[in-house]
Write a structure and sequence with these properties.
Number of strands of chain B: 2
Number of strands of chain A: 6
Helix content of chain B: 55-70%
Helix content of chain A: 55-70%
Strand content of chain A: 15-25%
CATH class of chain A: Alpha Beta
Number of domains of chain A: 1
Largest sheet of chain B: 2 strands, antiparallel
Structural class of chain A: alpha+beta
Distance between the termini of chain B: 48 Å
Low-confidence stretches of chain B: 16-20, 22-63
Strand content of chain B: under 5%
Shape of chain B: globular
CATH architecture of chain A: Roll
Largest interface: A-B, 43 and 41 residues
Mean pLDDT of chain B: 80
Number of helices of chain B: 13
Oligomer: heterodimer
Order of helices and strands of chain B: HHHHHHHHHEEHHHH
Number of helices of chain A: 6
Radius of gyration of chain A: 21 Å
Low-confidence stretches of chain A: 17-22
Distance between the termini of chain A: 72 Å
Chain lengths: 197, 281
């Protein structure tokens, strides 16, 4: 029996030694992954031959594999609100929100054409990896933070912070407010309402 | 001589009154924020606010889904207690007023100005005004005992005011890689543990909270423009600053606003998150 306990401890220590260098490599891999995506997106933005619509389509095809839009939808609603929805409503919410989020993401990306990105080393936060960077435009610098989680065999984005403002949190507070005073249908109506100018 | 003396005394008395008033409101702000942070206070007013109850639908949901939310519990704390917002009615109205002011007044003026003045000149002017914010940043870095920040700010001011031609250019950043330390009195108060109190939307300035609104008073004493003995300059310079800055960022407010499902809640939340980060730094 003692032999097995000893063996167990030795194996665990060994596993720890093997795992930690892998974890260190993860931060590098995630940084590389993000840098690759952003570089190709910036190249599309600088392309003078493409129309606005073509650019948007191209950029979405570049970033879509690394952004977990469905998870983001769930997180913005939060556990408390999510479990109040029926299965059908949950699906409808995901569809409506993801569409909105994609449009909003593309609007923001194409707003700044002459941007420069300065990367900082990725940071491990528990089981997540955060990649901070400075996005430098005309006369100011925005601190942007991409947050990755491990989705099985790949790393995917679940939140983005701009100058400390988390995308998930800012949607969450609005959904909370709408659902506090209204119904799920009110929320869907808001999501369907075309953005006004 | 005698005349000067009494005027100075009156001036001092006014200052003391202002300071005492500010202190009194700050104390009130501290009490309010304390009451807000105390869970028993929240419990008293709303027993369901802590989310202690479970909905009937909870039993039906799969265990897997819970796991997903548990992995990202960094967001779950957010909705635990509702935001203490006693002036929400006023705040919503003022958000709407500011929004209309932007579209009806500020934006058309800034666009007309931008059509006449070249972008290069507008960027120079924007940097010039940034450079004038040096006393506010320096004093507040010192209040927070951020000596490196104070050094960097002083060096930046020295370099940009001379080599950078009275601040029209920013050689400190471009050549020496010295970025400014954006500190103000609201952040100083936050640094020493004072909460925001409650959200407060200011006319023209937009979202703020009690702490940061009061923080504007001592900061205004450090604004060099307020020491120019000409009422037209004192009123005109900030107006030019706002129009000039807006002309460089047309489209950004619109984009943020377009995302909003509840404009006031979005601005309120984004403001607090941004301030929290700045205070942390």
């Amino acid at each position: 029996m003692r032999y097995f306990i000893c063996l167990g401890i030795v194996l665990m220590v060994f596993a720890g030694l093997v795992v930690s260098p892998v974890a260190a490599d993860d931060t590098k891999a995630v940084s590389q992954l993000l840098k690759g995506k952003i570089d190709s997106a910036l190249a599309v933005l600088d392309n003078k031959d493409m129309t606005e619509a073509e650019k948007k389509e191209k950029i979405m095809s570049i970033v879509e594999p690394v952004i977990d839009f469905e998870l983001m939808a769930k997180l913005t609603l939060g556990k408390g609100n999510w479990i109040r929805l029926s299965g059908e409503q949950q699906q409808e919410f995901i569809d409506l929100f993801v569409e909105r989020l994609k449009a909003s993401y593309l609007d923001k990306t194409t707003l700044y054409s002459d941007q420069e990105v300065a990367y900082h080393p990725a940071v491990k936060q528990g089981s997540k990896i955060h990649v901070p960077m400075d996005v430098i435009t005309k006369d100011k610098t925005a601190e942007v933070l991409y947050k990755f989680y491990s989705a099985g065999d790949q790393w995917r984005i679940y939140d983005v912070e701009i100058n400390g403002v988390s995308l998930i949190k800012s949607y969450r507070s609005q959904f909370d407010e709408i659902l506090r005073s209204g119904t799920v249908q009110d929320l869907f109506d808001e999501l369907k309402r075309p953005a006004d100018e | 001589m005698h005349y000067n003396f009494s005027r100075k005394r009156a001036h001092n008395r006014r200052r003391i009154c202002l300071c005492l008033g500010a202190l009194f409101i700050l104390a009130a702000c501290g009490i309010v924020s304390k009451a807000h942070a105390d869970p028993s206070f929240v419990l008293m007013s709303n027993p369901e606010a802590l989310g202690g109850h479970t909905s009937p639908g909870a039993v039906d949901s799969g265990v897997d889904e819970f796991g997903e939310f548990e992995e990202f519990e960094e967001f779950e704390a957010e909705s635990a207690a509702p935001v203490f917002d006693p002036l929400i009615g006023y705040n919503r109205t003022m958000t709407h007023v500011n929004d209309r002011l932007y579209f009806w007044v500020l934006k058309p003026v800034a666009q007309a100005y931008g059509a006449v003045v070249p972008e290069f000149a507008r960027q120079c002017l924007s940097r010039f005004f940034d450079n004038l914010g040096f006393p506010v940043r320096l004093v507040n870095t010192l209040f927070q005992i951020k000596l490196k920040g104070a050094g960097v700010e002083t060096l930046r001011f020295g370099v940009n005011s001379t080599v950078g031609i009275v601040g029209f250019f920013d050689p400190a950043k471009n050549w020496m890689h010295l970025s400014p330390y954006e500190e103000d009195f609201g952040q100083t108060l936050g640094y020493y543990g004072l909460n925001g109190g409650f959200p407060l939307v200011l006319p023209l300035f937009g979202p703020s909270n009690l702490r940061d609104s009061l923080g504007r008073v001592p900061d205004s004493y450090l604004d060099p423009i307020n020491y120019i003995p000409n009422i037209y300059v004192q009123a005109g310079a900030p107006a030019v600053n706002v129009v000039n800055r807006t002309s460089l960022h047309i489209g950004e407010y619109e984009a943020l606003r377009k995302d909003a499902m509840d404009m006031y809640i979005l601005f309120r939340d984004a403001y607090e998150q941004n301030r929290e980060k700045k205070i942390e730094e």
